[in-house]
Specification:
The chain is an alpha/beta fold. The chain has one domain: Flavodoxin domain (Rossmann fold, 3-Layer(aba) Sandwich), CATH 3.40.50.360. The protein has 8 helices and 7 strands, in the order E-H-E-H-E-H-E-H-E-E-E-H-H-H-H. A 5-stranded parallel β-sheet has the order 2-1-3-4-7, with helices on both faces. It has a two-stranded antiparallel sheet with strand order 5-6. Strand 3, helix 3 and strand 4 (118-125) form a beta-alpha-beta unit. Helix 1 (16-30) packs across helix 6 (199-215) and helix 6 (199-215) packs antiparallel against helix 7 (220-227). It is globular. 37% of the residues are buried.
């Protein structure tokens, strides 16, 4: 199994997104998967400019030279795409969304003949207490996976501009395989720093990776463990406000954990 993971967090390996992503990827590797990890901060992938074709130019225009040229073949050849992004104002981070846009617009005819359905997994964290903060991201991922396999016609009235045909691939459709969601994620980071055990979350992420690589599905109970409340809501909000007031949040026995 080939896995390509994209971390769209500007905090890279030090952010809360990485606290869930890294054990998830480690679990996949332990189960025999080949994992490649990329950070959007290292990639030069400009957004679309309304032309729907960035690396496949329209007649009379030049192709755009950027990192999508070498990354797209890896993405389309992968069995699993892991998209990791914190929630930034009720959505994916900008570079992560740009990557999804470019995957659709740039396309790849090689994906049509795939025999194994491709899977996409979302890994996301947020500062909000409420799990429904992730609803916009989940809706977007479901829609993207549903429509990502729409085929293009060759041209629109002979113009050379590709348009959606409305057809579906029978074998290469992308399946949304699940989401590892961590609400009130700052608490996870604070608890780790303060020596409070959070193995239920990190080991849950590792088990999720193992399950996906082995069984191609993730147990919903495991996903629930990753998202479970870490401390009372009132305590979290108090610590959160302390953080923004410049006071270091202290967990320890006060958290009741």
């Amino acid at each position: 199994m080939k896995v390509v993971a994209i971390n769209g967090s500007p905090n890279r390996e030090t952010g809360t997104t990485a606290l869930v992503l890294m054990p998830f990827l480690a679990g996949m590797e332990e189960a025999g998967a080949e994992v490649e990890l990329y950070y959007t901060g290292d990639l030069t992938i400009p957004p679309l400019k309304g032309d729907r074709h960035s690396t496949s130019p329209a007649p009379g225009t030049a192709a755009r030279a950027d990192d999508m040229a070498w990354l797209l073949p890896k993405l389309t050849a992968s069995d699993v795409l892991v998209l990791a992004s914190p929630v930034y104002f009720w959505g994916l981070t900008g570079p992560t969304k740009t990557l999804l846009d470019r995957m659709i617009a740039d396309g790849s005819p090689g994906t049509v003949d795939r025999l194994i359905p491709r899977r996409t997994v979302l890994v996301s964290t947020c500062g909000s207490w409420d799990l429904d903060t992730f609803d916009p991201l989940l809706a977007q991922m479901h829609a993207w996976c549903r429509h990502e396999s729409t085929l293009y016609t060759e041209s629109l009235l002979g113009s050379g501009i590709p348009v959606f045909s409305g057809q579906r691939k029978r074998a290469g459709d992308r399946i949304f395989a699940g989401a590892l969601l961590r609400p009130h994620a700052p608490a996870l980071s604070w608890m780790i720093q303060d020596g409070v055990a959070v193995t239920g979350v990190t080991e849950g992420a590792r088990r999720a990776g193992q399950q996906l690589a082995t069984d191609k599905v993730i147990d919903k109970k495991v996903l629930s463990e990753i998202s479970r409340p870490l401390l009372p809501k009132e305590k979290y909000l108090h610590l959160f406000h302390q953080k923004f007031a410049g006071m270091p949040p202290v967990m320890g026995q006060e958290a009741g954990l």
